[in-house]
Amino acid sequence: MEGQLTIEEESTIMMDMNMMNSIVINEEDQDCVVGAGLDYLSLNKLLSETGGTLNFPLDPGPGATIGGMASCSCSGSTAVKYGTFKENVLRFVLKEVRKNLSNFLFF
Ligand SMILES: Cc1cc2nc3c(=O)[nH]c(=O)nc-3n(C[C@H](O)[C@H](O)[C@H](O)COP(=O)(O)OP(=O)(O)OC[C@H]3O[C@@H](n4cnc5c(N)ncnc54)[C@H](O)[C@@H]3O)c2cc1C
Predict the structure, then answer these.
(1) What is the pTM of this model?
(2) DSSP letters spanning 43-90
(3) How many other CB atoms are there within 10 angstroms of residue 97's CB atom?
(4) pLDDT for 57-72, tens place per residue?
(5) Cβ neighbours of 96 (radius 10 Å)
């Protein structure tokens, strides 16, 4: 793991984001809305199936997810031409669960 596993207290939990892999492609707007668990290789495969020119140009380690790439603002060999992660994202929706963990787990 890029950020390594950090256990701060005994009650620390790990979250599997695999199922947060939704994707909505807006070809007219030339953008898409994706879940944090989607990996960029799958994203590019789905984008290529639209037959258009949409492409997510970053290429860090294979299998990297949107959430993981965001957390380290990844780059890759194409960054000189297309920029790093932050230049390729228009908007984020962040969900803070740390302070309301009991709400998050039980509601
Ligand atoms: C072979 C290889 C080549 C690489 N080349 C490059 C390169 O050229 N340029 C570059 O910039 N990077 C490179 N990387 C690093 C790469 O950018 C990161 O490993 C990758 O982006 C992390 O994504 P991940 O999904 O694997 O995240 P993880 O390793 O699973 O997590 C990374 C961090 O993000 C946190 N995190 C993950 N998901 C979320 C979420 N949904 N919400 C909040 N926090 C989250 C984790 O807790 C952890 O702290 C390379 C890595 C490898 C293995």
Answers:
(1) 0.86
(2) HHHHHHHTTSS-----B-STT-BHHHHHHTT--BTTHHHH--GGGG--
(3) 12
(4) 999 988 899 999 998 8
(5) 7
**Ligand 1 pocket check for 60: Cβ under 6 Å:** yes
Per domain, the residue ranges of the chain are: 23-106
Nearest CA, atom 18, ligand 1: 2
Tell whether the torsion through CA atoms of 96, 101, 105 and 106 is positive or negative.
Answer: negative
Rounded-to-integer distance, Cα 55 and Cα 4, Å: 29
Which atom in ligand 1 lies closest to the alpha carbon of residue 84?
11
Token pair of 16 as six digits: 């599997």
Evaluate: CB of 66 within 6 angstroms of ligand 1: no
